[in-house]
Amino acid sequence: MGYRCFEVDVTGRVAQLVLNRPAALNTLLPEFWRELPDAVGRLSDAGDVRALIISSTGRHFCAGMDLASFEHTDLLPSGDPARANAGRKRLITRMQDAFTALERARMPVLAAVQGGCLGGGLDLITACDLRYATADAFFVVQETNIGITADLGTLQRLPTLIPAGVARELAYTGWRLPAARARELGLVNEVFGDHDALLAGVREIAAEIAERSPLAVWGSKESLLYARDHDVAAGLDQIATWQTGAFQAEEVAEALRGRAGGHPPDYPDLPAVPPL
User: What is the mean pLDDT of the chain?
Assistant: First the structure.
C-alpha cells in the first residue's frame, strides 16, 4: 500500500520506514496519523518482519507537525465548547495512539536520526525501542517554543529514558539537546559520524536482532514495556506468566545447534495475525 508521508521497504526480515518529505523538513501531515499506525500494524501482523528501522531524508529527521495541520478542520473541531473540547481530546488520543503503535509492534523499532528532531519527531523516537543519531543531530521539545504543552508522549516517555531533571529542563526551556549529550544521558545508543554511517550501522544492528528468536525478542519487548509502567513485583509476575505460555524448548535447542555448528540459528517467524 502506498503512503504519502513515507516509503516502506522490506529487505529480508528487516523493514525500513523512511520519512520522504525532505523539502518540508519531514514535517508531519494530517495523513501521517492514519498512515503510521497502518504501516506499523501491517508489518507487525505479517509475522516475518523482525526489526523495523525508522529513518528520514534530507538535512533533518523531522521538524515536528506541519504548521498547515493546525488549520486542518480535524485539529480545530468546531461547535459549542463542550463538544469542541471533547472532540479535541478524542483527536489528541488518536494522535497519541499513532506513536503508541510503535510500542505495540511485535518487533523492535530502531530510530535513525540525522539533523533536527523536533516536536512530533521527538514524540516519535521516544516511542521507539532504540535510538541512534548522527553527530550533528539535536533534539528539541519544540512545542514549548510555540506556546503549546507537548501532548503526544514526550513528557511521559522522555523522563523514563533520561534523568527526570534534564527532561524537565528541556520541556521548560525548549533548549536543544545535542547528540553527544543525548548519548551521555542515554537517549541515544550510539552516535555516528554522518548519515551514511548511521544508516549502515543501524541496518547492521537490525540485521543482528533479526537473527535472534523473534519470540524471545517480542517477549523481551513486552516485558520491558510492562516493567516500565509497573512495580517490580508486578513485572516479575508478568514475565512468569509470559514464560509459562511462551517458553519454547525447540528454540533453545536450535540456539545450541547453531552455536555448535558455527552458524546462525534458524528460528520460525511469528505467526501472522489474520485481518479482522
Answer: 94
- As a whole number of Å, the CA-based R_g of the chain is 20
19-59 pLDDT, tens digit per residue, is 999 999 999 999 999 999 999 999 999 999 999 999 999 99
Strand-pair partners of 83: none
Among candidates 15, 92, 96, 81, which has minimal Cα distance to 51?
A: 15
pLDDT at 113 over 90: yes
CB-based contact 254:267 (threshold 8 Å): yes
Q: All 3 cell numbers of residue 272?
A: 501472522
Q: How many beta carbons lie within 10 A of that of residue 208, not counting itself?
A: 11
Beta carbons within 8 Å of 83's beta carbon, 6+ residues apart: 77
Q: Which helix (H) or strand (E) holds 33?
A: helix 32-46
Q: What whole-number distance in Å separates Cα of residue 191 and Cα of residue 163?
A: 19
CA 137 and chain centroid, separation: 17
Mean pLDDT of 165-172: 98
**DSSP 8-class letter at 267:** P
Q: Cα separation of 28 and 89, whole Å?
A: 19
For 85, the enclosing helix (H) or strand (E) is helix 81-104
Average pLDDT over residues 50-72: 88
